[in-house]
Amino acid sequence: MNTNRLSKKIEDILNSQVTKEAEAAQVYLSYGCWADSKGYSGIANYFFRHCKEERNHMMKVIQYIMGRGGEVKITDTKGPSKNPNSLQDCFEKTFKHEVENTTAIYEIVNLAHDEKDWATYNFAQWFVQEQIEEEKLIMDLLDKLKIAGGDKASDESLFNLDEYLGQAPDHAPLPREASMDKPE
Ligand code: OFO
User: Fold this and answer.
1) Could you point out which of 104, 130, 150, 157 has its C-alpha 20 to 30 Å from the C-alpha of 140?
2) Domain interval for residue 98
3) Which residues contact 123 (CB under 8 A, 6 or more apart)?
4) Measuring from atom 1 of ligand 1, which residue has the nearest CA?
């Protein structure tokens, strides 16, 4: 008896998301190592924490495939691109990577919608929300770097930024939770 509740296309796209989350983890890992090599231990810590988040995302997709009776296929991952050449470049590349991952999540949502696979559609909504948060976190990094002076930031402001990011929250507040009493 076939107990696989996923169509072939859905199983494939979810497996490809497993790979994408693993690749996202490697990007954060490599940027963390790069930041540390430049002396930014706070920023490195921030990236290492996010590396772990991406691995958690990977595990969520794996558990979902298995829980629906599907087959998980672990494949090769693409290595991270070459090291950034500045903090600005690092944050921009991270943002671009998150946007690409958001696009991949939307493809899952679109396919689940087309196939009327409401279980997968529902599962993917967690990731839609997560990507809003993740993009916002990186936008905040870019804003903070801009305030610090961007590529022309002084050593002192970079020192403060590094300190701040070492302890920055891992989650951004969602717009849906905002109110006039608590705008953020
Ligand atoms: Fe998995 O959330 Fe970022 O990419």
Assistant:
1) 104
2) 8-150+160-169
3) 64
4) 54
